Amino acid sequence: xxxxxxxxxxxxxxxxxxxxxxxxxxxxxxxxxxxxxxxxxxxxxxxxxxxxxxxxxxxxxxxxxxxxxxxxxxxxxxxxxxxxxxxxxxxxxxxxxxxxxxxxxxxxxxxxxxxxxxxxxxxxxxxxxxxxxxxxxxxxxxxxxxxxxxxxxxxxxxxxxxxxxxxxxxxxxxxxxxxxxxxxxxx
Length: 187
Hints:
Elements: H1 2-17, E1 21-26, E2 32-33, E3 36-38, E4 41-45, E5 50-51, E6 66-70, E7 76-85, E8 92-99, E9 102-110, E10 117-122, E11 128-129, E12 131-138, E13 146-154, H2 162-186
Antiparallel strand pairs: 1-13, 2-5, 3-4, 4-6, 6-12, 7-10, 7-11, 7-13, 8-9, 8-12
């Protein structure tokens, strides 16, 4: 009986833990003007600006310009993003995380130069946020060409609907009752 109960508890823990978070990527499948929405995330900024993964069409990002990234008012964890490295420096920007309107994490200031390739920048923090904000800090040449943003999305435990839960409960109680009856009859 202890083996059955242990197996049931382990299965419940495994099924619940796998439903807690899932990776979500935004790849800018269709470069478009802001606001831009993909995979449940909304990118907002200066009207007329665009989000892009195109090296030929970088974002013009001046000092004080912002791009806010949100997810329908729900919290998430920022994981990484890709930025194109030019031979000259990009416009520089701060990457900040907010929760409930308060800044909770500063991911750093970015202005990458040298080389001609996309480079992945990892978050370096596992903070829970509800807004990721890019804020222009220095105009150093060309605009930004960003590619994939990756996030972890908290989903919470998946509830079992009542019609499905009742037969499972009855079956579990039946198995426990049968195991107890067998143990009493064996002695």
